[in-house]
Design brief:
This protein is of the alpha+beta class. It is about 15% helix and about 25% strand. Strand 1 and strand 2 form a beta hairpin. The chain is elongated.
């Protein structure tokens, strides 16, 4: 019973203090954020009513696939980085299904045809 009364008293005090602050009776210092010329992280990037726009790039040919990383695990917990996304076996990469991850390469499948994409060894300029 004492616990219930303590909770009731705390809630009452909280409401009274909140009303004092809202009505301006309590002296509360206003905080002003100094962004130092950078974007204010507390202001949303999108205005009211705005919606996110997701554009998913669809890869239709093997020429548009860049394998930049492979973490190979013979037990089957392998990962690959294709076009900047981390993928696992059976994931879709554009119009292709990632059939298998091997050491330094992946096997993609599209319309029952398999394509082997090798790991990019050196940085390449992409124009």
């Amino acid at each position: 019973m004492k616990v219930i009364w303590c909770v009731v008293i705390l809630i009452t005090i909280s409401l009274i203090l909140n009303n004092l602050i809202i009505c301006g009776w309590a002296d509360v210092e206003e905080f002003i954020y100094d962004s130092k010329g950078r974007r204010d992280p507390f202001i949303p990037l999108l205005g009211k009513g705005a919606e996110f726009l997701f554009i998913e790039e669809t890869v239709e040919s093997v020429a548009g696939i860049y394998l930049t990383g492979v973490v190979y695990d013979p037990i089957g917990q392998s990962f690959a980085t294709i076009n900047g996304e981390v993928v696992v076996e059976n994931d879709l990469v554009g119009a292709f299904k990632l059939k298998e991850i091997r050491e330094g390469k992946v096997v993609l499948q599209k319309d029952n045809e398999e394509f082997v994409v090798n790991l990019i060894e050196e940085a390449q300029d992409v124009e």
